[in-house]
Amino acid sequence: MEKKRIRSFHDLDVYQNSYEAMLIVFREILPELPVEEKYDLIDQLRRSSKAIPRLIAEGHSKRHQKRGFQKYIDDAMAESNETIVSLCQAKDLYGNNIDVEVCKKLIDIYDKISRQLYNLEKAWNKFHEKGNS
Fold first, then answer.
1. What domains sit in the chain, N to C, each tagged with a CATH number?
2. Extended beta strands in the chain, E state
3. Which candidate, 10, 82, 12, places its Cα nearest to that of 46?
4. 122/26 Cα distance (integer angstroms)
5. Using an 8 Å Cβ cutoff, are 31 and 130 in contact?
6. What is the distance between the alpha carbons of residues 65 and 75, in angstroms, rounded to a whole number?
7. Sign, Cα dihedral of 78, 80, 81, 83
8. Is there a contact between 72 and 58 (Cβ–Cβ < 8 Å)?
9. Conformation bin of residue 6: beta by default, left when phi > 0, alpha when psi is -120 to 50
10. d(Cα 96, Cα 55) in Å, to the nearest integer?
11. What is the pLDDT of residues 48-72, one digit of tens each?
12. pTM to 2 decimal places
């Protein structure tokens, strides 16, 4: 397997996956949730799904700082897990309003994103341990 060169955060698969998933959340889930959830579930899902690609991008800019990078990746993983919980709540509470299959697909995507973030952090730690900065 050929390693691809990472020149910017745009080159990270986890960034691309989280950005695409966020677009699906905004286009297919949020508009279908009831208005009474505007200041709770909708707001939370909006913020957590948008935060993940932002944190990855910001973390990438701090990649020269081991702890700085780790903090942003840890925060992105926390937001991804929070998004999973919000999607589960949307599916279980409002399955009549939203496309449950799209919601299940998104839950799987965000689970993959969380694992990708964990693996990215592990790989970055190994990279730094070898003295590459």
1. 19-129 (1.20.1440.60)
2. none
3. 82
4. 30
5. no
6. 16
7. positive
8. yes
9. beta
10. 33
11. 999 999 999 999 888 777 688 889 9
12. 0.90
